[in-house]
Amino acid sequence: MTEVFEDQVCPFCGCLCDDIRLEVENGKVVKNDNGCAISKAKFLNHHDDRIESPTVKKSAVSLDDAIDKAVEILASAKRPLIYGLSSTENDAHREAYKIAETLGGVVDNTSSVCHGPTILGVQESGEAAGSLAEVKNRADTIIYWGSNPQFAHPRHLSRYVRVQGEYIKDAKADRKIWVFDIRKTISANVADEFVKLAPGGDLELIGALRAIVRGHPLDVEEAGGVSIEKITEIAEALKGTKYGILFFGLGLTQSKGRHRNIDAAIRLVQDLNAYTKWNMMPMRGHFNVAGANKTSTWQTGYPFAVDYAKGYPRYQPGEYTAVDMLVNKEADVMLNIAADPAAHFPRAAIRHMSTIPVINIDPKRNMTSLLAEVNIPVALSGIECDGSAVRMDGLPLYLRKVVDPPDGVLPDRDVLKMIHTKLRKVVK
Amino acid sequence: MNDVGVEVVLTSGRTLKQGQTMELGKLNQKYFEAVAICEVDKSTLEALGLEEGEPVKVKTATGSVVVACKLDRRAEPGIAFMPCGPWANAVLDSDTIESGMPRFKDMDAKLIAAKGEKVPSAEDLLKAIVEVP
Q1: Does B133 lie at the interface with A, CB-CB under 8 angstroms?
Q2: How many angstroms separate the CA atoms of A387 and B24, rounded?
Q3: What is the distance between the alpha carbons of residues B58 and B133, in angstroms, rounded to a whole number?
Q4: Do B132 and A351 touch, CB atoms closer than 8 A?
């Protein structure tokens, strides 16, 4: 029998497309309509390449034994690091923060290696916020800066930009798309204007744009790899728009200037608001990394890089961020949830991970599962268990369960709750 | 050892194939083929004397990794691209300048032709990283 699910939310990227139509047969998703190529790959292969059983030192054990081992390791830690959270739903996050508080440990999420600098920039200069619906209905100038949505957010353009809106009657004629990047990406190909900047030249170019927007002439020929003539033309175009949106990706947060790039971009948007309406939005990658920042802020007061060593939460990016905790050889145990740090951290961090016990909670096999002393398989959020997640513009959406997880496999939140319940009995 | 190569700025990021194959499994052959690559322009390939698909060593101050080279027809000389993942991160500097964020996007790198060398699997790469004293 075929079961049909309409308007399912896709748990892949920060777009959280909520118009997916799924067909389920015999406990497997067999058809995905409306989803992008990555969404189809995620739903149609949800049962492939799973961690088949809880393991301790690569030997299969029962779930209870794996949890007992995890509790034993965590309870003996002096400086535990709890990390991940961006590919699971909000209720699992709550349990992770409880574990961090009980242990007096550090809890960080994957935003420290994606839009962490965005948050630092916002803390410096304020947050420009608005919804994707505003973009769809009003935006006549769209910038993608250091972002390649055609690959990373494949339906972003078709759902919010190259589409008719309340005040945008002709999606092609009434909107102008600019791409700013150091290389001509596939997204640059579909843009109306491509601005190629020098690698690491973002901060300089934004600074020059700000100066010209504010009417200060610059006595140089170029800035950030772009001629002053072109920068002047861009500044006039940005001032002349009715509603502009600056979408920015990791090209801005992971390059030379990090949070200073974001700080400057926010100031540029503030400058432009003296002339017209401008807004900006980070292109969030994992489907609930925005949620991890929200839940961390609700529960601890801080969006990432939180340390409970003193019994109360403290915040220090650069010190309590996962890469630094590992590279500085500070963490003596790592509890990883819904992330793959062994695949996405620099080698010095991975090398330290290999010297400490790693407890890995994830549905699928990956580089971290190869390193981990304890592996606990869990259900895939938004496919095998429900929950809530936060879209890139801050909108929370409900993820539905469409199939049962494999036998004996529980959601992250239940596994973490079991760990926390046992930890409370052994940690003073 | 012959260290003659082409100096580039190395950047990394998501590709559609990287995203798709990641969902098939990160230890999967298709993920390996989609991610253990370095995209360059035609003139860089010619300078290295390599055909598309042949191994190239990507070397930074942090370390080196061998991946398959790939032609990007839109690319220009001076910039090389690797999909985000274990192979790109194997040459990534770990300094976060107290921000938490390593510099994934604009690394100074050198590309060296590596004909005859093997592109390591995810398992082999991990082993090589953790076994260094």
Answers
A1: no
A2: 23
A3: 21
A4: yes
Amino acid at residue number A275: Y
Q: Is the pLDDT of residue B1 over 60?
A: no
Return the CATH number of A52-114+287-383+402-426, one of 3.90.1720.10, 3.40.50.150, 3.40.50.720, 3.40.50.740.
3.40.50.740
The string of pLDDT tens digits covering residues A107-156 is 999 999 999 999 999 999 999 889 999 999 999 999 999 999 999 999 99
Contact A199 B105 (CB under 8 A): yes
| A357 contact partners, CB below 8 Å, separation of at least 6 | A73, A333, A334, A373, A374
Residue B1 falls inside a structural domain: no
Residue of B99, B104, B108 to mutate, testing the A interface (most A Cβ within 10 Å of its Cβ): B99
Contact criterion met (CB < 8 Å) for A253 and B84: no
Buried b (16+ CB within 10 A) or exposed e, A273-308: eeeebbbbbbbbbbbbbbbbbbbbeebbebbbbbbb
Mean pLDDT of chain B: 94
Q: What is the Cα–Cα distance from A219 to A217, expressed in whole angstroms?
A: 7
CA distance A249 to A180: 10
A351 to B13: CB separation less than 8 angstroms, yes or no: no
pLDDT at B2 over 90: no
Q: Do A38 and B19 touch (CB under 8 A)?
A: yes
Please check whether residue B13 touches A, CB under 8 A: yes
Per-residue pLDDT at B3 exceeds 90: no
Q: Are A269 and A128 in contact (CB under 8 A)?
A: yes
**ipTM for this model:** 0.95
Which amino acid is it at A18? Answer: D
Kindly report the average pLDDT of chain A as a whole number.
97
